[in-house]
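Protein modeling request. Please complete all fields; requests missing the sequence field cannot be processed.
Requester role: graduate student
Desired output: 3D structure, token encoding
Chains: 1
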Amino acid sequence: MIKVGKVSYLNTLPMFYKLLGYEIVEGHPSELFKMLEEDKIDIGILSSAVYLKDKDKYAYLDSVSISGKEMVCSVLLFLKEDYIKNVYLTKDSVTSRVLTRWYIEHILKLAPNYVENEEEADTILYIGDKAIKEKNTNKYKHKIDLGEEWFKEYKAGFVFALFTYKKSNPNSFEKLKEDVIYSINIFYEKLKNNALEKELFTKYNFVKEDFFRTYFLECLDLGLDENHKRSLDIFESFVKRFGLT
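Delivered output (245 residues):
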């Protein structure tokens, strides 16, 4: 049975909603990257920077991704003050770490200190469910959606994650791609018809139902079109510039 790595965040829910017949292994993006490297999974929804860093070694499923439309709503910089001096970057995703450096160093032209201790930071990168939870607090002076900042600059949705696998893996993943797309379509059909199971809202009780709908309908794009691929091409230069930060 094919082992599929699943990021333990709300944003992967549609992809795995009705995905049956696979062994699902959960973890943060960085954990899944390590599992892929050690052949503990066959394929996983991994940070796009992993693929861009080593395109000779990796490939990805076409037509599916975790991307933003304009805003992405779950990859955000939280500023405690009106300045950016000491920055804490979550270790959960290399893509979001590189994207943060793109924004701070390339767009804002700043040279901050990157600190290992979150308590020392005036600026904090959170992603996924943690970012959604923090977004609803009043602890910060400013909250910057990094997907929105990318869209402002390039007029293309940012691609955060791809279903990535080693080219050396002998499995075919075409059926997996079909099954993931089927799962996404069923999820969105039910969402639009207000027919999702109530237990989903209990499971993700940190999200209010109106934001749940906004998040999936207005923030996330789970496809992968030519504009997304252009976005990947642009981001590749920053992955090479900053490395897998």
